[in-house]
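tokens incoming
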């Protein structure tokens, strides 16, 4: 089942084309990586997929509840970690222990390190057990052990019949993924199942961007 389908989506900011007739689909059971240089349109695409921004043209079909972990975590900074989790109904989730948030439950969100802020934001995104999880640079500010735990968490979540669309600059670390879409200046350069690539997703991304920059 397709949980997110975007067809011919275009978004302009003044004279700047953020997305140009983009097609993208995310299916259940899939970890879908979205890669591209800075300014390629990744965050705009996630904002449109989430419904925070409307496209200028094209269609967006969502067939699941959507949760989102933002690049800059959006937390209730005056509350503790436990209070944030309680407000969003995420305090009983196994993810709290998996992300080691149980170690900082009494700490105010404003006092958390960048890594723990990312972890808390991820837990809040999963509070309602959405069928589709959108993640914007989820590995930023995490140590190597936390990165591996988060990648495993997302993979397990997809294996349960959900899906994740992950915008990342860290394709070598966010592995495995099932599908790769590469954006460049608002255009889709590559959209492929990773088992159909003849190189790693990271190398396929570099090859696509280098080809575009040489044209």
């Amino acid at each position: 089942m397709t949980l997110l389908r975007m067809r011919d989506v275009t978004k302009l900011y003044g004279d700047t084309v953020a997305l140009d007739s983009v097609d993208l689909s995310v299916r259940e059971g899939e970890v879908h990586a979205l890669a591209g240089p800075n300014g390629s349109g990744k965050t705009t695409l996630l904002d449109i997929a989430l419904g925070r921004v409307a496209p200028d043209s094209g269609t967006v079909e969502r067939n699941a509840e959507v949760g989102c972990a933002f690049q800059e975590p959006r937390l209730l900074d005056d509350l503790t970690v436990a209070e944030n989790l309680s407000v969003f109904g995420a305090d009983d989730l196994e993810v709290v222990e998996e992300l080691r948030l149980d170690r900082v439950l009494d700490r105010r969100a404003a006092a958390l390190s960048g890594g723990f802020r990312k972890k808390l934001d991820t837990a809040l995104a999963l509070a309602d057990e959405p069928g589709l999880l959108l993640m914007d640079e989820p590995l930023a500010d995490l140590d190597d052990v936390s990165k591996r735990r988060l990648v495993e968490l997302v993979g397990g979540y997809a294996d349960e019949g959900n899906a994740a669309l992950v915008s990342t600059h860290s394709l070598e670390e966010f592995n495995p993924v099932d599908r790769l879409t590469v954006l460049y200046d608002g255009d889709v350069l590559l959209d492929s199942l990773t088992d159909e690539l003849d190189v790693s997703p990271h190398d396929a991304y570099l090859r696509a961007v280098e080809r575009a920059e040489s044209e």
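note: Residues 144-159 form the longest helix (16 residues).
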